[in-house]
């Protein structure tokens, strides 16, 4: 069936023509066409309402002379009435056209007509339990209207589910030649009813249906409608059905991933636990156990990261998503689950294996050695003559960025444990300045090393002032390279958290740095990650925890 392209804004002629052709949707062709256009129609009606509510009813009728015919016809189409919020939107539109103070017979007649339509809409919006208002047939069966229609829907769903699973129903075997077109038709007719709770078993069966056809047999409109309803939490589906939906329909997977990113970026989250809860609730980490889903989600993350120039919020989301995915993969009980190299098919598997080791799998005394091992492998890979292109370098950095927890630990280890600093500083320099050539990275190392050496001379002091950190502050505020600024700020923030003298000046210093550099988001993100790790590790003293929480409270007001 040919589908219409996008509809011009408030194109009443287009939709009136459609409404006339549909009538009351008594033929299969008209029913299919209605189902195909329901999402578009609902958007159109919503735009009409948004326009009408700012207009006088007389002006609205003069400006849109076809509006009465259109609304009147749509109110009698059962498919339109049953779809999502279309019925409510039609009521709103009619209310806008109602004249509160009719001035002439035409307006009085229009009001009377609107009242009759509203009565029709209201009476069809619920099934009355009053026996006198039900049909004699239903009453004779001993049912109320509500019970009757509820049982009717449930029986229909049971019948269709059995059909789709290949059982014989009334002599019909779904394994026949026409099964593909039959399944497609069922998916189309589900469109107006996807949010009906009783329909969930049928939605699940359709999503899990495997007909053996080379092309997708479920209608794309059905898949989009189910995905939208799931994302808006209008329906609840088993995980297997959601995963099958995303495997069958790439646009739905893309929309789910972007919806998650929008959700996380648009709301202020106070902790990494909240971020993890939202991500886990999306089911995307669990669905990513299938390598195809993981790679597509990962590609979307990569594109968003490039578009946002590596904002800390997006980096944190990627890192938490990766942790949750690895947990889900580890907890999988399937006999034949995919190996992790199927998800990270990079040419340097030893580096992947080292990054995949969770920090809490190792004793804290081995962290520094493990980080040096990661740094050495990464350095060899980056300085390899075969790693020439910017794309190659970005792919290596993007791999490392998934495991940002190791980078945060590297910065902590520099200030908390006796380590050889060069390897760990190089690791941080690459993470913050991946685009630098060798000569530029050497200069970054020189500046980072100078700040590090200065900080290592201070921990023995129990009383510090901002003046003691003046040289480091000068490096942060006077460099024109944001990457160096972020690296030095990371080291300074950790120094303030993990040295007793730093606790005294932490709030004043952080306020000074954020005012001078505009790095509130970066520092807030770092503190949230640190708080999460401390909560799970539980080894830090209470004073550090108090300073951390106080800093977070203050910074959240600025972000």
UniProtKB/TrEMBL annotation:
InterPro entries: FANCC. It holds the Pfam family Fanconi_C. One of its GO terms (biological process) is cellular response to oxidative stress. One of its GO terms (cellular component) is Fanconi anaemia nuclear complex. PANTHER family: FANCONI ANEMIA GROUP C PROTEIN, FANCONI ANEMIA GROUP C PROTEIN FANCC. This is FANCC protein. It comes from Thinocorus orbignyianus.
């Amino acid at each position: 069936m040919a589908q219409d392209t996008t509809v011009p804004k408030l194109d009443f002629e287009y939709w009136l023509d459609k409404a006339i052709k549909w009538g009351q949707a008594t033929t299969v062709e008209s029913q299919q066409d209605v189902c195909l256009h329901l999402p578009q129609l609902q958007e159109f009606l919503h735009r009409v309402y948004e326009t009408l509510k700012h207009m006088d009813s007389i002006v609205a009728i003069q400006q849109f002379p076809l509006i009465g015919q259109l609304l009147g016809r749509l109110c009698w189409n059962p498919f339109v009435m049953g779809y999502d919020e279309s019925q409510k939107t039609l009521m709103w539109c009619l209310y806008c056209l109602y004249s509160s103070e009719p001035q002439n017979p035409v307006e009085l007649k229009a009001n009377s007509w609107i009242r009759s339509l509203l009565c029709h809409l209201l009476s069809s919006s619920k099934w009355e339990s009053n026996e006198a208002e039900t049909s004699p047939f239903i009453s004779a069966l001993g049912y109320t209207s509500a019970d009757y229609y509820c049982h009717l829907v449930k029986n229909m769903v049971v019948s269709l589910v059995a059909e789709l699973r290949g059982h014989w129903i009334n002599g019909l075997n779904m394994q026949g030649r026409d099964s593909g077109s039959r399944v497609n038709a069922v998916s189309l007719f589900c469109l107006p009813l996807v949010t009906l709770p009783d329909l969930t078993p049928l939605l699940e069966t359709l999503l899990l249906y495997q007909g053996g056809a080379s092309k997708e047999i479920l209608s794309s409109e059905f898949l989009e409608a189910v995905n939208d309803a799931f994302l808006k939490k209008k329906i609840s589906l088993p995980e297997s059905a959601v995963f099958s939906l995303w495997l069958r329909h790439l646009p739905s997977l893309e929309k789910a991933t972007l919806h998650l990113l929008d959700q996380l970026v648009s709301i202020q989250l106070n902790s990494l636990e909240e971020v993890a809860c939202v991500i886990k609730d999306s089911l995307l980490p669990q669905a990513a156990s299938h390598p195809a889903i993981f790679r597509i989600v990962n590609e979307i993350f990569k594109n968003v990261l490039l578009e946002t120039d590596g904002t800390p919020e997006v980096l944190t989301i990627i890192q938490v998503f990766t942790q949750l995915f690895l947990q889900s993969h580890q907890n999988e009980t399937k006999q034949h689950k995919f190996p992790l190299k199927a998800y990270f098919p990079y040419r340097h598997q030893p580096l992947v294996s080292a990054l995949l080791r969770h920090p809490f799998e190792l004793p804290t005394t081995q962290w520094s050695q493990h980080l040096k091992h990661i740094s050495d492998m990464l350095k060899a890979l980056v300085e390899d003559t075969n790693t020439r292109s910017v794309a190659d370098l970005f792919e290596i950095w993007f791999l490392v960025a998934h495991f940002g927890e190791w980078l945060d630990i590297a910065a902590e280890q520099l200030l908390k444990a006796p380590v050889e600093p060069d390897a760990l500083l190089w690791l941080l320099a690459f993470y913050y300045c991946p685009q630098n050539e060798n000569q530029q990275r050497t200069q970054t190392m020189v500046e980072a090393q100078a700040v590090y050496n200065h900080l290592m001379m201070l921990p023995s002091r129990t009383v510090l002032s901002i003046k003691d950190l003046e040289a480091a502050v000068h490096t942060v505020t006077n460099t024109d390279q944001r990457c160096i600024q972020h690296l030095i700020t990371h080291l300074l923030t950790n120094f303030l958290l993990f040295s007793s003298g730093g606790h005294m000046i932490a709030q004043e210093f952080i306020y000074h740095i954020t005012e001078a550099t505009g790095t509130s988001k970066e520092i807030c993100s770092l503190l949230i990650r640190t708080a999460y790790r401390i909560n799970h590790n539980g080894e830090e003293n209470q004073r550090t925890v108090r300073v951390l929480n106080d800093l977070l409270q203050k910074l959240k007001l600025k972000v």
